[in-house]
């Protein structure tokens, strides 16, 4: 998982080098596109989306049936504001790789962008059924509920997240914030200790 500037820059370079060495290495295009996506998310520089579009196009030529191609296309179209197309692409990816939870998050985000909250929630709940203790899904569920003012359900999700990742201080801060917002100051204080 790529998280900081230095790692992203190393990933961009490494995947490009892999492609330069073997232009038919499909997974290198996947890695490069993912690194370009992370770069866009981190910097908001739309040049990374342009680069990602080019990389995804190259992947299409190298392996048009790659299992992650619809996911990458979905992420790209989601970031371009083409939400209905993104939904179709994420659904296609989920049909191909039903345990690839990141596609569920993308699908949920596309529904959120369209204001379809019930669908967005259901997608995350479906992902949670597949892997009930997955921290990425638990966090996204918690954020979904928090963002929609359902603080009790957010507490439940963040509490499950804290149980799975006891050193995740953000989970405890989120629990505390939820308690604070529902007016339970004492429990808010206890939650961060």
Supply the key terms.
11 helices; 0% strand; 193 residues; 78% helix; mainly alpha
What is the SS-derived class? mainly alpha
Q: How would a textbook summarize the main sheet?
A: none
Number of strands: 0
* Count of helix runs: 11
Helix content: over 70%
Output the helix-strand order: HHHHHHHHHHH
Shape: elongated
Oligomer kind = single chain
Round the Cα radius of gyration to an integer and report it.
18 Å
Poorly predicted runs: none
Q: Kindly state the mean pLDDT as a whole number?
A: 94
Strand content: under 5%
Calculate the terminal CA-CA distance, rounded to whole Å: 29 Å
Would you give an account of this structure?
The protein has about 190 residues and is mainly alpha-helical. Helices cover about 80% and strands about 0% of the residues. It has eleven helices and no strands.
Write the layout of secondary structure elements.
Blueprint: H1 5-21, H2 26-43, H3 47-62, H4 69-79, H5 83-96, H6 101-113, H7 117-130, H8 135-147, H9 151-164, H10 169-181, H11 185-191
Short description:
This protein has 193 residues and is mainly alpha-helical. The chain has helices at residues 5-21, 26-43, 47-62, 69-79, 83-96, 101-113, 117-130, 135-147, 151-164, 169-181, 185-191.
């Amino acid at each position: 998982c790529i998280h900081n500037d230095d790692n992203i820059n190393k990933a961009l370079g490494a995947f490009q080098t892999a492609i330069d060495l073997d232009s038919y290495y499909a997974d290198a295009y996947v890695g490069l596109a993912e690194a370009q996506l992370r770069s866009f998310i981190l910097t908001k520089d739309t040049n990374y989306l342009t680069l990602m579009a080019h990389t995804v196009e190259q992947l299409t030529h190298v392996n048009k049936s790659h299992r992650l191609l619809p996911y990458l296309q979905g992420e790209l179209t989601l970031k371009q504001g083409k939400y209905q197309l993104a939904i179709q692409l994420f659904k296609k990816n989920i049909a191909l790789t039903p345990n690839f939870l990141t596609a569920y998050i993308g699908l949920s985000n596309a529904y959120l962008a369209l204001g379809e909250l019930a669908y967005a929630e259901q997608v995350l709940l479906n992902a949670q059924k597949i892997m009930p203790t997955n921290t990425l899904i638990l966090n996204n569920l918690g954020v979904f509920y928090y963002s929609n003012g359902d603080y009790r359900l957010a507490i439940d999700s963040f509490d499950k997240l804290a149980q799975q990742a006891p050193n995740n201080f953000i989970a405890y801060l989120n629990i505390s914030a939820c308690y604070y917002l529902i007016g339970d100051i004492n429990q808010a204080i206890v939650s961060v200790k």
